[in-house]
Specification:
mainly alpha; 7 helices; 2 strands; 183 residues; two-stranded antiparallel sheet; flat
Length: 183
């Protein structure tokens, strides 16, 4: 029972230990079996489809073909990543005492528009190599989440740390998102 209580008390540390252990095992396998890990896993399910989508043609690397599509494996892994990100985001919002309400929705809208418009512009072949790869799914959504998180952090910093209470965290987030949309 001591281990269970330690895990409950140190939830973040436990999560970090599990994640870093998984990454360490993955890196060891990559070092020991580079052809299998890169060619048969990373290329086939992740980087190959991104490259193929960005260049708008099927790609082949070491005899492994990749098309611009999601696979069952990539969908499962991206789904786990999204679930983990949402879990972490909800924990962070709870810790920072930010409620998910209409104001939060208004603060997030510019980022939803940014991600969608940028993805459509990539499909319209507006971007060229190497920039195009930043606008291919899922990288555009990772980029958008990163920008939204930075805006959320800046909003929290200005509102809570600097004690500028006339501006809500979500308002600042929305303004930053709108500025990102301007170009």
């Amino acid at each position: 029972m001591r281990l269970h209580s330690w895990i409950k008390k140190n939830c973040l540390l436990t999560g970090l230990l599990i994640a870093s252990s998984g990454i360490a095992v993955f890196l060891i396998f990559w070092h020991l079996f580079p052809g299998i890990v890169y060619d048969q896993f990373i290329w086939k399910y992740f980087w190959g489809p991104i490259l193929s989508d960005g260049l708008n043609k099927p790609m082949t690397f070491n005899g492994i073909s990749a098309a611009p599509k999601f696979t069952f494996i990539s969908e499962i892994i991206y789904g786990v990543m999204v679930a983990g990100a949402l879990f972490g985001l909800f924990k962070l919002l709870k810790k920072w005492d930010i409620s998910i309400d209409f104001s939060f929705f208004l603060g997030v809208i510019p980022f939803i528009i940014y991600g969608s418009v940028a993805r459509v512009l990539e499909d319209a072949l507006l971007f060229t190599e190497p920039v195009v790869f930043w606008f291919v799914t899922p990288l555009i959504y990772i980029q958008t989440l990163f920008l939204a998180f930075i805006a959320l952090f800046v909003g929290f910093y200005v509102h809570q740390i600097k004690k500028i209470t006339s501006l809500k965290t979500t308002t600042i987030m929305g303004v930053i998102g709108t500025v990102i949309l301007l170009p």
